[in-house]
Amino acid sequence: VTKKAAAKKPATKAASARKAPVTAKALQGKIIQHLRGTQGTYEEKATPQAWWRATSFAVNEFVMAGLTDTQKTHSRYDTRAVNYLSMEFLMGRLLSNNLHNLHLFDVTRAALEGLGQNLDDLLEEEPDMALGNGGLGRLAACFLDSLATMNLPAVGYGIHYEHGLFEQHFRDGRQIERPDAWREYGNPWEVCRPESAQQVKLYGYVETRYEGATPKKVWHAGRTIKAVPWDIPIVGYDGANVNILRLWESRATNFFDWDVFNAGGYVDAQAEQAQAETISKVLYPNDETDAGKELRLIQQYFFCAASVADIVRRYRRAHGDDWTSFPKLVAIQLNDTHPAIAIPELMRVLIDDYDMAWKDAWGICQQVFSYTNHTLLPEALEKWTVRLFEKVLPRHLDIIYDINHQFLTQQVDAQWPGDDAMKQHLSIIEEGHERMVRMGHLSVVGSHKVNGVAQVHSDLVRTDLFPEFHELWPEKLTNVTNGITPRRWLKACNPRLAALIDQHIDADWPLHLDKLKGLIAKADDAKFQQAFMAVKRENKVDLVAEIHRLTGIEVSPDALFDVQIKRLHEYKRQHLNLLHILALYRRLLDNPEYNMVPRVFLFGAKAAPGYHLAKDIIFAINKVAERINNDSRIGGKLKVVMLPNYRVSLAEKMIPAADVSEQISTAGKEASGTGNMKLALNGALTIGTLDGANIEIAEEAGADHCFIFGLTVDEVKALNARGYNPYDFYDHDEEIRAVLDWLDSDYFTPGQPGALASIKHSLLQGGDPYKVLADFRAYSDAQRNVDEKYRDGTAWARSAIINTATMGKFNSDRSIQDYVDRIWHLKAYPRDN
Ligand code: Z16
């Protein structure tokens, strides 16, 4: 820092903090030191991998300093913290994010340049941390960023999967899954904490001992697994706190191995070990279907038991056996029902291990837990057979029975005296051919707050999913609309737009995203419009190169880029998009003069490996793309590209280049959506249904700046009530009939007639459960409007700017503030270094 700079009083805190905490020269020294000292190589020989590692380790010095300061602050003030329990954290890459949040990005670029290295290239060396399926896991990651940025004490708890979400390849257009190996050669961001390992019990039986006044239950476990924590530091933006994401890895317990080993069972001991280590081996790739597998239940219990034990250990370190402060210091958020088993686990610990009375333990649980619901889809609502529970977690089944008994005989009977049907309906145990434990019911009963993830979704949770619970506890069900971190999803992924924004409004917009509203005044300014669209075009040029690199397909950056990126699912209706593409193609073949703006339809999507129709839709998109992209008759007006292996780091390249954001789920099915927010923030115009957060996006941006179409939630319900018949549309709409029949020919799969027929089949004989045909005409009309608006460059630029300017609400900091106000009641503690 020069004398002059030091003397100048900074205008804002952000302006002062924005200065890098190190010079390029000093940073070079650190990078070289790690290259030689920890990577065991040297400048002339080092691979890009080694440079990336050395750079990450150099940055880690700043990260760790912040971590230590934050931990000291938290223990000094004995802070109340939220513990965010989630089976998934879809972190993506960390180097770029950490550099941005620490204001080290530019200085690192300069340092590396001096060493003959390019930062952008090195960033590409980092494997994605893909420990999640989609929206739910990425939401958790955005929330960690916001919690740290807002100086809120928080710990993320999850599973240290050896293999994250599978890597997707296409072979002749079909999805092939390959294992993801994100940490095959070690990961520079994680720190193993063997001193905080925990033991987790499984299986066995429960003994009832009659010693004192009340009988005591003793769980004799059949198996003990070691849970070893790996900590990932979460760096807040702009010099804020560094929190921890703690991920548990399963290991065989040593003592168990030795018993078998000494009995001469060397191979058996190895097999035991392999079994134990299977628990954290792989992420289940189903996003909205319940796997129902024993290993999945064990994964859930494994990480919940380790996390609850860790929370209790941290509490007891400061408070010993005095539990009075526990609910004042501990909040536990359940990210979906996946960690619901943490409720009976905390009960078990308090009652069995610490001899607490049932009533007191239950009082604590209800104050501590809260639950976020992410879906209404019945196939995603978790249930476990009582049989499986009895085998794996016999003591927890007991406790669940007790919770259920209290709930039904106290609360339900008081509200609906003698109503057995109601008791059956609300029971945590579903009676039937096979008795089941309903994890959603357990989560609602055990929590003090339950939230949906967008307003319309939360309304439906109250009216359709849990109406009786809402009647019973009118204060319990609430809404927290999702959000996304603007640090990753604008500042880091779209540096050109970020720089343009910096020229016009306060540079602390990544903290106060509402400040983007300042751009509304610029929406009609021709110069600003030009600059904004020039940024979009440069981003498109970059993506064009990436598309070519990944697929060999050539597209023009002058075309309209229309983007649908999300998991492949019928309710998200990628096949509606596909049918419309077929309609456009047909119109172009019928009339080569057909007037349309050249358009590139871009897709990115993984299908759950066992979801056959979803995989068929991927195959169909690839086959249709092949045919269209190689058809010289249509004059390059239409291109279709499905990029392989869609993931966070690919999203970061696609989103800044998007003109149109496809958000076309059947109304009532997409709980929120978060890609919709990212795309609009980066200046894409939404074509979408009135579903999930689209409704709130359209409210913020204004109806003139989105293309809303299709059936509403109420219209879908009414259609179902009067009986929906997809043939009404097939028989009466010539274009729908033609494109469906086309799919059923061999036009797109020469020599293989009917290879794409399953889509047509599901839309006709299958009853079209997601109302694709009912919404087709409205969608096609909305797409006409997109085309017309794009021809008017000024109108388009204006709407794109207004989209960026009005997305402040979807800052995940705002979501977290809502959680703090409505659910967690936390206080911020900036670190006192
Ligand atoms: C998931 O990603 C979501 C819901 C769910 O039940 C399971 C998974 Cl893995 C998604 C919702 O589909 C999406 O609408 C929402 O935006 C996201 O969760 C975050 O809330």
Automatic annotation (TrEMBL):
The EC code for this enzyme is 2.4.1.1
Q: Which reaction does it catalyse?
A: [(1->4)-alpha-D-glucosyl](n) + phosphate = [(1->4)-alpha-D-glucosyl](n-1) + alpha-D-glucose 1-phosphate
One Gene Ontology MF term? 1,4-alpha-oligoglucan phosphorylase activity
Q: Which PROSITE patterns match?
A: PHOSPHORYLASE (PS00102)
Cofactor(s) required, per the database record: pyridoxal 5'-phosphate
Q: Which InterPro entries does UniProt cross-reference here?
A: Glycg_phsphrylas, Glyco_trans_35, Pyridoxal_P_attach_site
Pfam families according to UniProt: Phosphorylase
Q: Is the keyword Transmembrane helix in the record?
A: no
Top-level taxon of the source organism: Bacteria
Q: Keyword set for this entry?
A: Carbohydrate metabolism, Glycosyltransferase, Pyridoxal phosphate, Transferase
> Does the record's keyword annotation contain Transferase?
yes
| Role of this protein | Phosphorylase is an important allosteric enzyme in carbohydrate metabolism. Enzymes from different sources differ in their regulatory mechanisms and in their natural substrates. However, all known phosphorylases share catalytic and structural properties. Allosteric enzyme that catalyzes the rate-limiting step in glycogen catabolism, the phosphorolytic cleavage of glycogen to produce glucose-1-phosphate, and plays a central role in maintaining cellular and organismal glucose homeostasis.
Q: Which PANTHER family match?
A: GLYCOGEN PHOSPHORYLASE (PTHR11468), MALTODEXTRIN PHOSPHORYLASE (PTHR11468:SF25)
UniProt similarity note: Belongs to the glycogen phosphorylase family.
Q: What name has this protein been given in UniProt?
A: Alpha-1,4 glucan phosphorylase
Q: What is the native source organism of this protein?
A: Saccharospirillum mangrovi
